[in-house]
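Input (Probable transporter MCH1):
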Amino acid sequence: MSCYDEEAPAPALIQQPQQQQHYLDCNILTYPYTPPYSCRNNPYTGRAISETATAQPNQIMPSSQTPLLARHDTSSLRSSNSSTSLSSLAQNHKSSSKQREIQRYVAFSSAIISCLCAGSITTYSLYGHLFQERLRYTQVQVNIVIIAAEMALYLPVSLLGYLCDRIGPAPLSLMSSVLFGIGYLLAAFTYRSGAKDVMGYTQERGWPLWVMVVAFVIIGLGTTCMYLSAVTTCAKNFGKGKYRGLALACPIAAFGLSGVWQSQLGSRVLYERRLDGKRGDVDVFKYFVFLAVALVAVGLLGTFLLKIVDEDELIDEAVDELERSGLLEDSEFFRRTAERNYGSIEDSCDDDATEARRILDAKAIEDEEARKKTWLLNEETRMFLKDRTMWYFAAGFFFVSGPGETFLTNLGTIIGTLYPPPSGTTAIPTSAATHVSIVAITSTVARIIFGTLTDVFAPASVGQHYGSISNSLSSLPTTPRRFTISRVAFLVLTGLLLSLGQVVLASGAVQNHAERFWLVSSLIGIGYGAIFSLTPLIITVVWGVENFGTNWGIVAMFPAFGATVWGLVYSHVYQWAAKHRPYSEEREEDILCYGKSCYAGSFWAMAVSVWIGCALWVWAWKGRGGWSKRGIAV
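Output:
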């Protein structure tokens, strides 16, 4: 026996159409929708949508928020309560929107704090030369330590990005806290076990090299976790906004800025005192202990504050966009969802049964949302890997980023080659800490400036999937047509600036003129900082933000290989020049090198490498099957 009046006909469920239709969001409809539109659930997103239909006036169509059955007196009830319901909905929506905005900016602030501390490994040049002088490491061994850290920094990014996309940024922030604490404490005690003090004394046996390597591998993993959790949070929370370039540039710039305050703190506060009472080099043990404590605290803070706001909406919009682009036609998810029965009508007055069914329906919806998210991210990963332009783009990143990484990690030893040994280190009118700060400041400024310039001058990209109709339409001329500069043009420009710094160094213009070295540091800092800001930005424009952690992680693996190749090239050229030095005095057991021959050949080759990378970027943009040919407004 039905609980409802017999004369009230039960409306039939709307069947899934066999052809694609364009849908309008009608989740907010709580009253009958008059022709020519009606409401039903989008089979891909589960959201209520509208489509052309022939529904009768005052007939309730099934959706995620409207009942499946209607009574004959429904219209009279709605007319009496419609104003109250709409007012309540508007108030709740406003309150909910304000709360989400607060969460979004709290997460942004936490991401900035994380990035301001996460770049501690960029200060390696501050103490790398002390591994030579105090631990008696060779130049090759010094590079082995940092290369191992860079491999751990870049190679796992795709895996960690995959996890970040699926479980969120908070667990990665917690993981970074643990890894930083273990890594820096292990490095601190490894250094203390074998380092000479200012008096020249040392313990008989220090811990072996592999212990320091393990410590820096752990530090590299911690850096990746903290950096990726912060940047992914900003990319997803602001990736749809007008100023997404600036929103993404800020945490990346903060990452570069972390090297400034940490290197200055180490050289001006946590330093050793020489025998004459003057300030000496950084006290490596105290510096490592400080970093361990600080980064543990920042990682724990991010665990509670880093959140993705409205992630379900991002997933729904991405699925809708893929549907409009026609890329879902042959997918298993498309077929399974189209065949799914979205509800049934049972004649029952049992409140307990109704509540049980409601709970089951809620659980089913939750499971469907999780399955939808997993399917979408896996589908976007597959599309990303099949895109040939991605491989051209990533290869260019390999050729450009490797030389930049090598300069940063060997900055201290490069400065040490500018003057011959008789002059002594005190005669060099500059220091590694100064140029670590110069690189950090210039890279930070470049990231913010180029991120802002792309927001102002780059063409607008409406859609974010390379197959979307909206993205293609966004590349068509508008009236009036504003002046635009492609993001790829900015990227190539910064690559050329980086190569210019390498050419100046390789030419020998700064040899015996350390006061000119700021020019090299500034040019390389600008180029290096900007490419690490523009590269992830272009990824969000071409391939979207929903799978950003995975996509950026795949591309970010390539600098590890570049840094390894060029780090080994530089260290072997350095070692060869140390053994064939022209001066007669034999010091430091052929460990230290002095003169232009220590670095010139390496940096000429690095400049050529950067030019090759820029050519690959242009090919991905303008070449056969490139973004420009597809109509992607990049």
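The CA atoms of residues 129 and 413 lie 6 Å apart.
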